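Researcher: Quick sanity check before group meeting.
Model: Go ahead. Protein one:
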Amino acid sequence: MANIKPFKGIRPKAALAASIASKPYDVLNEKEARQEAEGHPYSFYHVIKPEMDFPDDFDHYAPEVYEKGKHFFQSLYKDGIYFQDERECYYVYSQTMNGRKQYGIVGAASVDDYLNDVIKKHELTRPDKEEDRKKHVRISKLNYEPVFFAYPKSVELDQLVEKAISASPIYDFTADDGIGHTFWVVDDTATVEAIRVAFQKVPAVYVADGHHRTAAAALVGNERRSSNPNHNGSEEYNYFLAVHFPDDQLAIMDYNRVVKDLNGHSDDAFLKALANGFILEKADQSPYRPARLHEFGMYMGGQWYKITAKAGTYNDNDPIDVLDVTVLSKQILEPILGIKDLRTDKRIEFVGGLRGLGELEKRVNTGEMKIAFALFPVTMKQLIDISDSGKIMPPKTTWFEPKLRSGLVLHALDEPYTLD
């Protein structure tokens, strides 16, 4: 049973929302953030990536960095650019990409649900990245950015969303990347209660994107419990900011790999070794995009190949061994190319599907990389099966698009929110 509550969101003035909203902190570096923020004095990048306002050689994790982000936001709030809703609300957040729409319900997810595995995870988190996000939450006492959750389709919640979007949206804009963002406030008492009760019938929710932000938000909330001798469970820090999408509206894009060298093999020796576990064919189209599970595109030496995994190289009855990222690692990356740890090996890099297969060709053609592998995307069913089994996906398996925009609504750990 999912406990997802309404909350008093902290939001920007409607006229400034498009200029303020930013991509998530982890999809670009500080130099790219500076470029995107140029001409937008209230850009939310100053809050979530405050290192962009320091010299390039400044320690990104210095206390001054976190304080800078906090004070930038507080100046926006003090100047009335942001305000807090007076009533507890849910919000509906719609995104449009290439004609496809997805509608998420913004609500406050429960720390207890995270600790008790009602919120299910499929990735490991890195302690350094987790601690970085914790510091933002601890110092600001805010959840700056929402996490991206999925839930099993609910007809009841679909109907409530349909009702909510019949009203006029508060924000409605198309970002520079062509993705549309539309936002509704749901504040009438009956609908708010109906959404809360409907979520209680949802058996579990799934972290789609934002494992580090999820862990940081939940664990800081748990820290606050431990340090409060008067804790009673009703405090706002028992919840954190999340957008919940029905699983049937979401699409996962391919997450591809490029490798710097062949681990000492010649091209011919590598192809010969590959033939032990795969059927190799020169592709009749360029670039070659895999059409089904256990089929890969491979680019090397100016040539695209279609490679198909032979029976015995995968196990369709195991939620991890069925994944093509697992097949690639066990049959090629580890035994042939000598890449055993995807998290630490510097010879491999990962390319999200939004960049297209042309990016794989470019990385190889420039000589930066020797070989590229295009993978068939993971499905939402596979993600849910793995999360339900309690297992962990290999690193860099799922790439969700579109990304949530940050800065459209924030959640305060203390109610009411007050400035220092």
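Researcher: Fine. The other one?
Model: Protein two, sequence then structure:
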Amino acid sequence: MRFGRLFSVYSVLGVIILAFSLSVIFSFSNLRRYEALARTELTDTTWILAQAEIELIRFLYALDLYMYGEPDVVRKEDVVAHMEIFWSRLPLFLEGREGRRLARVGDAQDTARSALKTLARLEPAITGLRREDQDGYRVLRAELHGLLAPLKRTLIDAREWQEASAGIRTERLDRIYAEMIIAAIGILVSTGCLVLLLLHEIRLAHRAQMAEKRALARLSEAIESFSDGFSLFDKDDRLVLFNRGYREMFAETADLLVPGVSFETLARARVRKGLIPDAVGREEEWIRERMRRHNNPGSDFEVRQHDGKWFRLSERR
């Protein structure tokens, strides 16, 4: 019986190895199609630049409508929203895979850094702009419009870089054919060993996962025994777990207490519902102060609630 089970397992593994080997062989004829995918990656990089330019134009258009259009057409909140959308595009120039690509495109990253600094400097003036402040509007409009030219130049540089990179990729593609022939031989030999190793690793991973679940269950039981409220946030400042005391402390926003919600979301919800008397009339300022204290925890502090209660809060990294 045991031999039959082993035979079945090895038969399945043999079929997997054969199928994988055939897929490698057939991939030679399909390799040219993947060149289009490489071109798409380059196009995505230029798309980021083009999208940033479009969002800046929309931002300027919203600002113009706010100053000269009908009051009900565009509100200040719409202008700020367009500013934030444009603002959110700029970090893509500097971070991740696209950031590494754009580092090779002209002054793309310098343009993004300069735009970020300009937005950070102008944000208070934009959020506080009034329709009757024509002089302030003209100054803001001129500075923001000055961001367009560098973006356009960067987009042109990116398209030229895209064309050059596509040519280089085509040359490399021919070399890949020869390299794949050599690699296929090694794959046929190593795949069998790899599958067996993966099966072993899967068993180990399953055991580790079960141990992690048991540890998490013990941790949950431990924090539930605390008389005080307790919560744990991960490195991205998102809620991982909390106890019953924490839910009772923040019962008014208990519907938001689910794993994955950010600390700032919870803080804004309490402010929005008027649960923090000290935040009334200065909501954004209070939230900034709260997030600054949250991100740089020090000594314990107290917060007054709407019902007159005081919470003593202790935060640690």
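Researcher: One line on it for the slide.
Model: Strands lie at 231-233, 239-242, 301-304, 310-313.
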